[in-house]
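User: Can you predict the 3D structure for this chain?
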Amino acid sequence: MNEEATGVIGQTLTGMSATDLAEAIRERRLSAREVVEAHVNRIEAVDVRLNAVVIPTFERALAEADLADAAIARGERVGPLHGVPITVKEQFEVSGTDATFGLRARIGDRAARDGPLVAKLRRAGAIIVGKTNLPQLMLAYETDNDVYGRTNNPWDLERTPGGSSGGEAAIIAAEGSPLGLAGDMGGSIRVPAHFCGIHGLKPTSGRLTNDDSPAQHAWTFAGQQAIVSQPGPLARSVADLSAAMRVLAEPEPNPVEPPVKMFAPESIDLRGLRFGMYTGNNLFPAAPALRRAVEEAADALRSLGTEVLELDPPDATEAMRIFVSIVTSGGPRSLNDALGGDRRHPILNELSLGLKIPNAVRPALAWAIQALGDRRRAFLMRSAGPRSAYDFWGLVRERDAFRRQFLASLDRDRLDGLICPPHSLPALTHGSGEQLFAAAGQAVTYNLLGVPAGVVAATRVRRGEESDRPPSRDGSDRAAIGVEQGSAGLPVGVQVVARYWREDVVLAVMSALEAHFRTTPDYPSSPPLS
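Assistant: Here is the predicted structure, written as structure tokens:
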């Protein structure tokens, strides 16, 4: 095959979904070797600008592709992802590779085995072509660290792909990988999916094991067991999310997590569903394009027979207060233990400084900050800080009460789920994340609740609708206006939420919305990378 033909075919192959690639490989219309080669070539072409794949495993992937082709030639029965190249977030254990979490101290500490979720993907036939970038300790909505550097958004290199699964979302959006494994503790799958114009799913808290990331347990914040970081898939196709979940949620012989059955999204009849919708919350107003996307999604579902009604959102301010209080309850010692002597990356400055403030002076300092106009920063400062064991368990009880209240509201309105914005802004400019943590309250609410939530790519910001935010003294409002300026053309997603263990409902609604939005002129089908 000549070089020109390889380029043309490779570009076509890298635009295919994981499920289509798997079918073509099974039917011998494509070889695993040429599919993996095409994705390796694509990564090498785009990653100079993105810096998304920070641990390439190209040689091993090509060798595994040859083995996959040999198995097909022998007529062996193969798995649902046989021969398909995928990427995984750097936090997960892949044998022979580092999982540094962006810490220099962990460089060279290579995994001796694949973690259980990675092993499931391999048993299904997937071929790992690389591991992707993340922020230091996975504690930011930007992807940057001192080990690998900064990752850029393929839609605009001056913007972040989000965090903490930003590298994963960036390379999937840029067609370097059709499918990826990521994690979500505070929107870390859904925010990057929204920022990069792809799809992502956070399953119900506890659905999938965290044992792929055992080093994470060594630096666990006090609240990690109360706010569970949940692994989940990212992809350019909702069908690929469903395929990945069928693999990842396969029951283990000796399950540590609750063995709750994963239902088939294909069995869901949208005409029998009743959904709520809202376009804003009481913490951080959503940008115009985010509101429009939810309204268009509601109209699309209504046209398919789903009953959709407008309602008041869950109390995002209360959710953020409980969330921040829980995850920071270990105080500065928790962060210092996590860093293990590493230099704190600048994107963690605000968190680190906030944790060091003594609780005795915290209310007065928050009052002074609010008097100067930074009301959201003051709110977060009041919420954060070390807690006693007694106070920590009081917060857990508040979390449980918030969950009961949410379920009662679903029962009262007879709702199967909700659609809403995944974030209040399009992709952030590099360096703005510290001031805009509250803008992620749209996602954080559903981490506190622990329900399944996904983001489906929907539209792009149109010229003339970048911002309608009024002038403000508040630092986060000013930062938001700065992000919204020049945001025309950036992708926008819609968040879909359902009841506990009903990932099938989330995926069914996401699939319907994907089919609708793909027919619209503003659908974010491909970022402007050559």
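Residues 9-215+224-252 form a domain with the Amidase signature (AS) enzymes fold (CATH 3.90.1300.10). The chain has three domains: 9-215+224-252, 277-316+397-524, 330-386.
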